[in-house]
Amino acid sequence: AIPGILTQCYDKTTGQPDGTTGPLDPTNESTYDFLEKLYTEIKAVFPDKYVHVGGDEVPFGCWESNPSIAKWMAAHPNVTDAAKLEQYYELRLLDILKRLGFSYMCWQEIFDNGVQILPDTIVNVWKGGSDDTALKKELQAVTGAGYRAVLSAPWYLDYISYGEDWKKYYLVEPDNLCDNCELFGVEACMWSEYVDATNFISRSWPRTGTLAERAWSPKNVKDVDAASPRLNELRCKMILRGIRAEPIHPSFCLTEWPGDAEAETVRASIRRAGLDMRAESYR
Known about the structure:
This protein is of the alpha/beta class. The protein has eleven helices and nine strands. The strands form three sheets. It has a five-stranded parallel beta sheet with strand order 3-4-5-6-7. It has a two-stranded antiparallel sheet with strand order 1-2. The protein is globular, with a radius of gyration of 23 Å. The protein starts with 5 loop residues before the first strand and ends with a strand. About 25% of the residues are buried.
């Protein structure tokens, strides 16, 4: 841990530290020293041009409770509230990334809040869910301002539901949400409030495959009954490879899940035999 870069939260009643910490402290120069070292290391390890800088749902309460931050803001009259403090932080971070040669992707709040961003920024649109009107408005605003947009709002796979919920993901046509504009891409999201290492793979697959087919298919490819056997075959192929992909409907695979201890043995046997990794599925 690096001391001082997380904000110390205060009890507003007593004016004393409450023992918890909040977001990074934007008023502490050590924060930016740490970020520069972090992203320098990332640059050395990963060849990617883009990094995702986040920027969504930052809780302001801890910043607002901290007397040191209040004193700093009083000395910086352009930073009038917590939203402006977030903007100050993001601009400092984006300046670091620019110096290091990164381009970046950000959640839509950074764009919505008017933060100055580079022309090649990718804005990740996640708000709106199934509200087509709100999504169209946001996508028009982002692309109209000259930025590229990646849409994730309709494909939050962590939502828990019963039955063949993959169909609702499959039936969303991205281009229908971007009138007179062009999407840069789409994205499936899996958040971890009710997901960890025990169920991440099974919750993600094979449902992520529905978005892959949707994104790479023409608009007229939208028959869920035709897609169902393809998705089920994908699931069976993943099971054969020892991947815990969950069922998409009542069905079975010729090769069912072998169990953790046997999964690698099965895969190794297939590789040694030089066999095709195809799998049959039945409903």
